[in-house]
Amino acid sequence: MSLENFSKHFIKQKMMRTVIISLIPIVFASIYFFGWRTLILLGIVTMAGVATEWSFEKNYNKKVSEAIFVSCILYTMTLPPTTPYWIAVVGIIFGILFGKEVFGGFGKNVFNPALVARAFVYVCFPTPLTIEWSKASLKFPGGFSNYITEGVETVSQATPMLLFRDTGKMTSLIDLLIGNVSGSIGETSAILIILAGIYLIYKKVASWQIMSGVLIGFTGLSGILYLLGNSQIPNPIFGVLAGGLLFGTVFMATDPISAPKTKEGKWIYGILIGVVTVIIRGYALFAGGMMFAILIGNTFAPIIDEGVNSYKRYKKDKAKEKEVAI
């Protein structure tokens, strides 16, 4: 498709293209760690996602948003490498329909569509989403020479968070930074996600207040519980690097549509997500928790903004009353 034909069917969104650029190294790393199946899965999910949005937008003579590509990439990166293609397709269709289109399309959605899709398949298809994992490649050429890497035999050792929950053992921090550990397709390499976050902040595409708020809320509560001797809570550094916390912080929590718009609201929102993640990870049935924490944050985002704006109006009115009294 030429650039001219592309522009006829898609809304140009510079911000979304910047996010896609930041995700490219993570996509290539996912191929290295888990094999070419990850790229095929991404392609299938993207075709299904674009087709779903187009089928709705054409009825209103609207173009498809380039944000659909971001949603498809983010959703795919949160899946296990072995996720059946049909399950992945069902998930993205559900996420676009009920996380985006039912609210009126791009810019009107309350929840992050990629997370709606991920939560749906997580709940509906627990076996392939929580039990079947692949080992990460350790030596070059890694997954570049394989369709998919070898499967993990012991479920309790499938991911760093599952390993900690079941045995109390913590994966090497170096391995977590590099990403050569089993886990979701794009959530394993902490260093690549951190670099992507720095890039998005530099480009003023993602909110550093939200990112900082999540890390403050998470490390604050997990640090307190860890120091109190709570065995379900690992040390904060491991907690930040393991699981999907960093990926969710950089790419999901900062979604400008489903996050608060006020500066103060962004801090509150981020801290809320960080705190809820600790609670879910430590005391719920789920080894992760970031996905549900962000969806909970999405629910409260409008209320947080309203509360912040109401407080500002209250302070302003009080200031006027004081001036009149003087």
From TrEMBL:
Stretches that traverse the bilayer: 15-33, 68-98, 110-131, 173-202, 208-229, 236-254, 266-286
InterPro entries: NqrB/RnfD, RnfD_bac
Keyword match Transmembrane: yes
Superkingdom: Bacteria
A GO CC term assigned to this protein in UniProt: plasma membrane
One annotated GO biological process: electron transport chain
Assigned keywords, A-Z: Flavoprotein, FMN, Membrane, Phosphoprotein, Translocase, Transmembrane, Transmembrane helix, Transport, Ubiquinone
A Pfam family: NQR2_RnfD_RnfE
NCBIfam families named in the record: rnfD (TIGR01946)
Protein name per its UniProtKB record: Na+-transporting NADH:ubiquinone oxidoreductase subunit B
